[in-house]
Amino acid sequence: MEQPLTGGQGREVRARRREGVERAAGMNDHAQRRAADGSQTAVEFEGEEDLGQLRPRVGALGPVVACALEIVEVQAFGLGGEPARDRERVVTVLPMGASQRPTSAFHAANVRTSDTDRLVGALDSQASSAGVRRLRAWAHDALAARPGERAVDIGAGTGSETLTLASAVAPHGRALGVEPHPGLRAVAERRAREAGDAVRFVAGGAVRFVAGDALALPVADAEADVVWCERVFQHLAEPERAAAEIARVLRPGGRVALLDTDWATSILYPGEPEVVAALTGGALTAAANPYAGRKLAGQLAAAGLEIHDLGSQALIQDHRSLDLSFIGVLSSTALRRGLITEPQRDRLHADLAEAAERGGVHMSVTMFGVIAHRPA
After folding, report:
1. Closest CA to 178 of 155, 150, 159
2. pLDDT at residue 32 above 90?
3. Could you give the C-alpha distances from 128 to 117, 121, 212, 315, in angstroms and in order?
4. Where is pLDDT greater, at 141 or 44?
5. What is the pLDDT confidence band of residue 4, given thresholds at 50, 70 and 90?
6. Tell me, what's the pLDDT at 285?
7. Cβ-count burial of 63 within 10 angstroms (0-12 exposed, 13-18 middle, 19+ buried)?
8. Which of 189, 209, 225, 319 could share a disulfide with 177, CB 3.0–4.6 Å?
9. What are the residue ranges of helices labelled H in 63-150?
10. Is the peptide bond before 270 cis (omega within 30 degrees of 0)?
11. How many CB atoms lie within 10 A of CB 121?
12. Would you tell me the crossing angle of helices 160-169 and 182-193 to the nearest 10 degrees?
């Protein structure tokens, strides 16, 4: 019998998911779920050809999740105790019990400056959504940042909400945007300089963007009057720690607006129910914390904050158009996992395209918001 993948415990390997999950030979759905939650060993590889070469060696490991990856950095792991001969083929062997929850390119551990343009495009597209605009307007109104206050924007991204907070706390207040991605910070700083009247606030140091993580904010205890945190918790495996950080940095009486998506609220119509369920279920496996939206209030309350307003907004795609790029990723993932067949995928795409032509397609997900304060 061939030896399993044991190689010397190589150094860290960094890679990112490309298009979904490939099912290894003989792996049933239950085994795949067990591998996904970290209770089984997983092997990650690059490309279908590599999967074929790795299969004989991983048989002794039991169920295997094999994920298509784009190589970022590969540092030697061995097969059967031997050095890896091809650094483009052997990606990583994850130990038994290691966390398998995925994270996104927005996660602090996955920062790559080469992703900047793609992430900016995604954030700008989301910001243009009528649903996002409405939920942000509600949250800013409820947060009610005032002149002279100190505001913190966690996961500032391109800085749009940091600048909104800066305008609210001007002329004597300060706004701090905390963002782990250097490329996004650079975009935020450039946009702040280009923001017309806001330039004088930036020049005076009233708006700053700094490197930081939601789990360890670069802010002193009880320093913030208001905190804004939007669509960050869905990327965190330990959102409770981030809630505790928010409570730590808020002064007594300080307020927080916490907004996030709940991916279990995804709706796609038309389509065969079992096929749609396979696609929307795939969205639940693609985030570290896919049910983030429904947990926000409880997590803030557990951190000692008092909830005083709740809101929600469905983000609905234009019923006259169809984003096949996004649908294509979901359907390709479901197909690779063996959850749907090619004819089912093709029928779904055709049904959606036909519905879009007559203005009858529906694609949505719901975001939730919580406004809370630290007791005085």
Report:
1. 155
2. no
3. 17, 11, 26, 11
4. 141
5. very low
6. 82
7. buried
8. 209
9. 116-127, 130-143
10. yes
11. 10
12. 50
